[in-house]
Design a protein that fits this description.
By secondary structure, this protein is α+β, with helices and mostly antiparallel strands. It is 23% helix and 27% strand.
Length: 260
């Protein structure tokens, strides 16, 4: 009997070791992750400034406003009602029109902040990719050091982003986004939104981000879209809310390219 128990115990130990080994392998991040400056040199070169072309930005605005378009977010009835109410309140002929998010200088938020035709820049440091966004002078910090999401995070407009590299693609998962954040345009999120992005450079002058937005309360189905950025030599402009908000002007700057 003693020999039998010892044999069983030995099998259990071996099995547990295999299971633990599989778990460790599953958690192992593949390839270079930019944990050191020397390994950053082996990551793809995303230097420079990237911008969504104005024409693509304008076309996306049209798609988002058409609920029948397959590229538009499919809102739940409750969120669709909120959108209709907000659009009615913001009619130019409404004498009690409320102040817009620009007028009150509300922070830009995920995922809406990534849609603008303004400059985007990536900075690589050990264990982190930082995204600098000209819109709202927003900063996103994506941690690639192997950490998971916080157990009890503070909700913010930008959320908490963790990521890992899969070859030349950075996969980013963002949670803990505040309910005040905009899902798109004026539509608020629910506070339970999650955003998954896959970022990679297509070629020397083109950059692509594939995005999936999930919100069990605001969306009927996950919202999937792709944006293509182009390399820009213009650089960054300083944009500050109070400057753009003078004399009751709550409009975004006119981005129409100048005529030659």
């Amino acid at each position: 009997m003693t020999r039998f128990l010892l044999k069983v115990a030995g099998v259990c130990v071996a099995t547990c070791a295999l299971l633990l080994g599989d778990a460790a392998a599953a958690q192992k991040r593949p390839g270079q992750q930019g944990d050191t400056y020397s390994s950053i040199a082996k990551l793809p070169d995303w230097s420079g400034v990237w911008v969504i072309p104005w024409e693509a930005f304008a076309a996306e605005n049209v798609r988002q406003r058409d609920p029948k378009n397959p590229g538009a977010p499919q809102l739940t009835p409750a969120s669709a009602a909120i959108l209709a109410e907000i659009l009615a309140a913001f009619r130019p002929d409404n004498p009690s029109r409320p102040p817009s998010t620009v007028q009150v200088c509300a922070p830009q938020s995920m995922p809406n902040v990534m849609r603008w035709a303004f400059a985007t820049e990536f900075l690589f440091t050990p264990g982190r990719v930082t995204i600098l966004l000209e819109q709202g002078s927003t900063i996103r910090r994506i941690y690639t050091d192997g950490r998971g999401h916080s157990v009890d995070p503070d909700l913010t407009y930008i959320g908490e982003s963790v990521g890992h590299w899969e070859g030349d693609t950075l996969v980013v998962h963002t949670t803990a986004i505040a309910p005040q954040a905009r899902l798109f345009l004026v539509v608020p999120s629910s506070g339970k939104m999650q955003v998954t992005e896959r970022l990679h450079r297509i070629d020397t002058n083109h950059f692509q981000i594939d995005t999936v937005v999930e919100d069990p309360i605001a969306l009927r189905t996950p919202w999937r879209y792709t944006r293509i950025y182009e390399r820009s030599d213009t650089g960054f402009f300083e944009r500050e809310c109070d400057v753009n908000n003078r004399d009751g002007n709550d409009q975004e700057p006119d981005l129409t390219p100048p005529r030659e």
